[in-house]
Amino acid sequence: MKYGHHELTAHDDPVHANEQWWSEHAAEYVAEHGDTLGDADFIWGPEGLREADIEFLGSLRGKRVLEIGAGAAQCSRYLASRGVRVVATDLADGMLDHAARLNREVGIDVELLRADARHLPFKDAEFDVVFTSFGVLPFVPDLGDVHREVARVLRPGGVWAFSALHPTRWMFPDDPTHHGLTAHRSYFDRTPYIERGSSTLDYAEFHHTLSDHINSLIDSGFTIDELFEPPWPAGRTVVWGGWGPERSPILPGTLMIRSIKW
């Protein structure tokens, strides 16, 4: 296995590689983070910020909602438990298997669909709100492919809200201790992080700067309604990858953007 920051080859299909990776690692991911994510809770990121507390999506009364990159669909299950009409999609079959299992165990029957967020199987203007919590965006090379498709399925005035890795994190090692506070990469270096087997691409993650996010949204027909960088809560002891109580009070970890379709 080779891993690190390398350019893709002409034969690489990063979205397909990530689909396979997330399917194969779904059980491991759910086992590791299930206690933090819950079965029917809506958490925007490792800081533990809950939709119930901030209502980042706004009022959902009478609205049709779509989650992309839903994973095991904990967020959608939370919304459904409160009477919201919601559909949860993901590209990884393994994740959807866990979503279906949790539906049965919790007794909340969220509609689940396998779908590529760049090619959604829905009509134009079918939804009032689309969201993802840390899904999809780090795993596609072109943000516009997702933003334009989200714009297509949203009605005019609809909301597109997401959380993602804060772009400044790309400069630092994935270390939650004080050792992770020394930058070792240029913020402007967009060379993807990849993992490669003997002959195939196994995983790819892409860096999108803040201007990449903002300009892609504008170019796709959105106006920015709110940009939020949640602080690390005092006393929070959870360690999640590069997030934790030692480093995260100093360095932003999550970017949240709510935008409105023209």
TrEMBL record:
Keywords: Methyltransferase, Transferase. Residues 66-161 form the Methyltransferase type domain. PANTHER family: METHYLTRANSFERASE, N6-ADENOSINE-METHYLTRANSFERASE TMT1A. Signal peptide: none annotated. GO terms for biological process: methylation. InterPro entries: Methyltransf_11 (IPR013216), Methyltransf_Superfamily (IPR050508), SAM-dependent_MTases_sf (IPR029063). The keyword Ribonucleoprotein does not apply. This is Methyltransferase type 11. The lineage of its organism: Bacteria, Bacillati, Actinomycetota, Actinomycetes, Actinomycetales. GO terms for molecular function: S-adenosylmethionine-dependent methyltransferase activity. It comes from Arcanobacterium haemolyticum (strain ATCC 9345 / DSM 20595 / CCM 5947 / CCUG 17215 / LMG 16163 / NBRC 15585 / NCTC 8452 / 11018). The keyword Transferase applies.
